[in-house]
Amino acid sequence: MKFLSQLLYPLYEARLTREIKNKPQPRHVAIMADGNRRWAREAGFTDISHGHRQGARKISEMISWCQGTDIEVVTIYLLSTENLKRSEQEVQLLFDIISDVVTHLSQGDLDCQIRLVGHLDLLPEQVTAKMQCAAEATEDHQGVIVNIAVGYGGRQEIVDAVQSLIRSESEKGLSAEEIAENVTAEAITGNLYTKGLPDPDLVIRTSGEQRLSGFLLWQAAYSEIWFTDTYWPAFRRVDFLRALRDYSQRSRRFGR
Fold first, then answer.
1. In 171-221, where does DSSP find H-type helix?
2. Which among 50, 77, 99, 139 would be 20 to 30 A from 57, CA to CA?
3. pLDDT of 167 strictly over 70
């Protein structure tokens, strides 16, 4: 059975690639890389760090899958503000793994441009500094833009955007009423962590959970959502291609 699966896998992958050719494809894909801990437990590991490490290795694979598609931006949800409430040992492990992921992506041959999105002041200074240094080294890269969402909370992002907008407007000497009139959807969008980038066309969540969990709440208002039961460490290129195929078959209405 395993041999048959290995034989059929490339055929199915080739078929999916043909099916999405010349079909509508997303420019921006957002990934909720969920299920690392459950994958580790079900694989028989007592140490969940195996799940986090395997999930980290999957990220560069996924970025490489974007080659040959129309995808220009990928946003990966790696650490939420809620995740920071986990045990000190696990949070420190996540800090180490995520900073290593950013460093690896900055030095690899994917030529991706890395941006950090999140409340970075919630992280230890040395972790933030390491990631920012790696990200800055990719500013001239011409590949896919990769947003690493770390220390991220969707509600906090909106709060930060509104506060930034109000501060900017108040510096102009405007009255409270004038500032209120300038708080528009477009103005808030221009102050988000992802400012200057298109909103995600497609949001993928692994592990079987079917909710956004605070991810890109503003930007994903009209995104197509694709859920899979597959845990992130086990996510394959065929799963990715299936998501793109399903996206190509949907009729986007943008609330209309």
1. 176-182, 185-189
2. 139
3. yes
